[in-house]
Amino acid sequence: MSEGTSRGAREGTSEDTRADSRFFGQPWALAHIFGVEMWERFSFYGMQGILLIYMYYTVADGGLGIDERVATGIVGAYGGTVYLCTILGAWLADRVLGSERVLFFSAIVIMCGHLALALLPSVWGLGVGLVLVAVGSGGLKANATAVVGTLYRRGDPRRDAGFSIFYLGINLGAFLGPLITGLLQTSVGFHWGFGAAAVGMAIGLVQYSFGRRALPAAARAVADPLPRNRYAVMAGIAVAGIVVAAALVLLGIIRADNLAGVVIIVILAAAIAYFIVIIASRHITADERSRVIGFIPLFIVNVGFWSLYQQQFTVLTIYSDKRLNRELFGWEMPVSWVNSINPIFIIILSGVFAAIWTKLAARQPSAPVKFALGAIIMGGAFLLFLPWANGAANSTPLLAIVGILLVFTVAELFISPPGLSVTTKLAPERFHTQMVALYFLSVALGTSLAGWLAGFYNPDDEVPYFTVLGLIAAALGVALWLAAKPVLALMRGVR
C-alpha cells in the first residue's frame, strides 16, 4: 500500500464522505455503524444483565448455583477478556483483513456465542458462550470505533459530536437489552433471555450486511499487511496459545476462583508490552511518540474510572438483588432492569453533551481535564452510597439508585466518548486500530478489577468499601487535573 493510501485510510475518507452531513449533521455512513453497534450492545448488555444472577442463583431457581464471590470474579474476568480480545481484533484489522471485515465476522461470532448460552446446558453452555461472545465483542469493539474514525479527517470539528451520537446507539441497545432479557428471565427462564440476545445480534447483522457497502474504502484498508509467508507462522502461534490455555485449565492452574486475578495480570502485561512496542517503533515520528507517552496518564485514570463504573454488573447487581426495594405498585421489577437506568440517562444527556462540545468547539475542556472530571465525579457517585450503607434488606429506595446512576452517567459522558475520540487523534498512523485496542485495554483492566474488587464487598460493612474506592477515584482525577498542562504538552497539539 502506498504512503498516500495509508494516510487516507488513517486520517479520513473521500471528500464526498467528509462533506456528507445527512445523519444529524454527520456522514450518512455513521448510521450503518450506529445500527450494528446498537444491536450488538442490545445483545451484550441484555446477556450481561442476567449473567451474574444466572451463575449464583440455585439450580431450583434456574441458575447454576456457583458461589457468589466466584461468580463476580468470572463476570469481571469475562468483561476484561472482552476488551482484551480487542488486541486480536485490532491486529487482524491492521495486518490481515481491515477494520470493516473484522467487524462483520465478529458480529457472526457474537451471535453464535449467545446461541450457545441459550441452547447448551449447564456450565458447558456458559463456558462456550462466554468465550465466543468475548472474542466476537473484542473484535467488534475496537473496529467499530476505528471505522467511525475513518469518517472524519484530522481537525474535523464534528468528530467529538459524531462519537457522542455513536455512543447514543451503544446506549440505546444497552437500555433495551436488559429490559427484554430480564422480563423473559423472570417469566419463562434464563435461556429465553439469552435467546433474545441472539435474536438481537442477528437483527444487527442483517442490517449491517445491507449497509456495509456504503462505508468508505478507508474502512477496509489494511494499514500494515502481513506478508503471505508469515501466515503459517502466525497460525501456529495462535494454535499454540489455545493449546497452552487449555492445558492450564485442565491442570487446574487457571480455575474459576482465580480467573479474575489471572486476567488482570495478563491484561496488565499486555498493556505494558503494547506501550513499549508502539513507543519503540521505528515507524513513528517524534510527535507521534510523544502523543503516545501523553496517553499514559489518561490510560491510568481510565483504569480507575472503569474499575468503579463496571461494578454495575457486579456489586450493583448483588445490591439490586438483595438490598434494593424493587417494588413498583405491588409488582417487583426484574433485577436486570436496574442496568437500563444508566442508558436512559445516556440517551437523554449524550445529545446535550454533544451540543455543548460542538458549541464550545476549540474552547471546550481538553481531554485531560475531561478525564479528570470524569474520575472525580465517579468517585463522588460511590460516596453517595454512604447514606444507605449497612441498611436492612430491601431498604434502599429505588429513587436513590436512580440518582446515583445519574451521577454515574455524567461521569461517563466526561470520560468515555471523549476517550474514544482522543485515542483516534493521538494514534500513530501505522498503529491506528491497535491504539484504539490499547484504549480498550484500559477498560479491560478496569473491568477485571471491578470483578476482583467485588470480592471485598461486604453488605454488613459497606462504609469502608464505598469510602475507600470513592476517594481513590477522586484522588486520581485531581492528580490528572493538576498535571493537565504537561500532559497537553506531550500530546503535541491534540486537545
UniProtKB/TrEMBL annotation:
The species this protein was found in: Homoserinibacter gongjuensis
Family label: Belongs to the major facilitator superfamily. Proton-dependent oligopeptide transporter (POT/PTR) (TC 2.A.17) family.
SUPFAM superfamilies xref list: MFS general substrate transporter (SSF103473)
A Pfam match: PTR2
Subcellular location, record wording: Cell membrane; Membrane
Keyword Methyltransferase: no
CDD domains named among the record's database cross-references: MFS_DtpA_like
Transmembrane intervals: 42-59, 71-93, 102-124, 130-152, 164-184, 190-210, 231-254, 260-280, 292-309, 337-357, 369-389, 395-415, 436-457, 463-483
This protein's name: MFS transporter
PROSITE patterns from the UniProt entry: PTR2_2
Keywords (A to Z) from UniProt: Cell membrane, Membrane, Transmembrane, Transmembrane helix, Transport
Membrane-topology annotation of the record: Multi-pass membrane protein
InterPro entries per the UniProt record, alphabetical: Dipep/tripep_permease, MFS_trans_sf, MFS_Transporters, POT_fam, PTR2_symporter_CS
Signal peptide: none
